[in-house]
Specification:
CATH architecture: Orthogonal Bundle
Largest sheet: 2 strands, parallel
Distance between the termini: 39 Å
CATH topology: MetI-like fold
Number of strands: 4
Low-confidence stretches: 1-8, 319-323
Strand order of the largest sheet: 1-4
CATH superfamily: MetI-like
Order of helices and strands: EHHHHHHHHHHHHHEEEHH
Strand content: under 5%
Structural class: mainly alpha
CATH class: Mainly Alpha
Oligomer: single chain
Shape: elongated
């Protein structure tokens, strides 16, 4: 059904053009910005160790090389031991990203396996797997991480990945289970079962393809959680000190009193990298949610024309002759005598008296 709205020809043309663009668009502007930020960090992590100007662990106590501000020789300055901060950042970025991606992959695999199994099997197995998820959800993650990493025989990135993946899967499992329960009652799943399809084929060819955006969002969220938690653990001194990471840079800067010494170049680049990487992941996750959620997708594609927000799912407006009054004139007419409540009633009564 068409909506009759006094839009001008130019406004209608702009609305149609925006709707065409929204129909072929997969990611919103925010998500594209997030994807560009994440891609830039991934590229820096890949080529960073090869283009690092110095060995990040080599110390230098020559005059003028300790806590030196950024210059041509050291673009991000040096720390209290004369080590190049830019080299530490380029090498540590790869370690942090690899840790986050591996942790996200392991935790997402566990979440998908448990969530889909609970949703498909139902009954006793659903109760058991849901109880397992609830038990892990109520565990205090950060204190447990501190205890586990503090008592592990060998602290390192492998131990951090195992512990983070062990505690990072319950959120995704609950969401995937709920979506699986919804899909299990759909007609196409019932039709597949009636035709004699095996359970594993129903899972892999009917249910999981409809959960791709949800699984991707769970993966991005887990990567963000793993990166933020690993940086916090390294800052507390609970990670390996033999592998450079963004958290380890902040740890050495805190121990070296970089803030008190006004050595901003020692901690600001690593902190800014963590903030930008987290922002990129959040924006990318928002875009993935839009793909899987029609309401968010319609809201992001809304176009404000003629003083009203038009979503792609709204009816197409019909152009009427004339154009709406300018906003300034409409605002001024709201305070005129003609717009008073009594004036409207008086004009209606006068019109009826004249006709009688």
């Amino acid at each position: 059904m068409a909506a009759i709205v006094p839009l001008g020809a130019r406004g209608t043309e702009r609305l149609v053009r925006r709707r065409k663009r929204a129909g072929g668009r997969r990611l919103s502007t925010k998500a594209r910005v997030g994807a560009v930020i994440c891609a830039a960090f991934v590229l820096a992590a890949i080529i960073g160790p090869y283009v690092a100007p110095y060995d990040p662990s080599v110390q230098s106590f020559l005059p003028g090389t300790v806590l030196h501000a950024p210059d041509a020789a050291h673009l991000l300055g040096t720390d209290s031991l004369g080590r190049d901060v830019l080299s530490q950042l380029l090498v540590g970025l790869r370690t942090t990203l690899v840790l986050g991606l591996v942790t996200g992959a392991i935790a997402t695999f566990i979440a998908v396996a448990i969530g889909v199994s609970a949703g498909v099997l139902g009954g006793f197995w659903d109760e058991i797997l849901s109880l397992l998820s609830n038990v892990f959800l109520v565990l205090p993650a950060l204190p447990l991480l501190v205890v586990l990493l503090g008592y592990l025989p060998q602290k390192g990135e492998t131990a951090t990945i195992v512990v983070l993946a062990f505690l990072g899967w319950p959120w995704g499992a609950r969401v995937i289970r709920a979506q699986t329960l919804t899909l299990r009652s759909r007609d196409f799943v019932a039709a597949s079962r009636e035709t004699g399809e095996r359970t594993w084929r129903v899972i892999f060819f009917e249910i999981m393809p409809n959960e791709v955006s949800l699984i991707a969002a769970s993966f991005v969220s887990t990567v963000l959680y793993a990166i933020g938690t690993s940086v916090a653990l390294a800052f507390l001194g609970l990670s390996s000190s033999s592998q450079w990471s963004l958290g380890l840079i902040l740890y050495w800067a805190q121990n070296g009193n970089a803030l008190q010494l006004n050595a901003w170049w020692w901690f600001a680049p690593a902190g800014l990298a963590v903030a930008l990487l987290g922002t990129g992941l959040v924006l990318l996750n928002f875009g993935i949610d839009e793909i899987g959620n029609p309401r968010l997708r319609d809201a992001s594609g809304a176009s404000k024309i003629g003083g009203k927000a038009w979503r792609p799912s709204d009816p197409t407006p019909v152009v009427l002759a004339g154009s709406p009054a300018p906003r300034a004139r409409s605002f001024a007419s709201a305070f005129s005598r003609r717009s008073a409540p009594g004036a409207t009633a008086g004009r209606a009564a006068a019109g009826q008296g004249g006709r009688s």
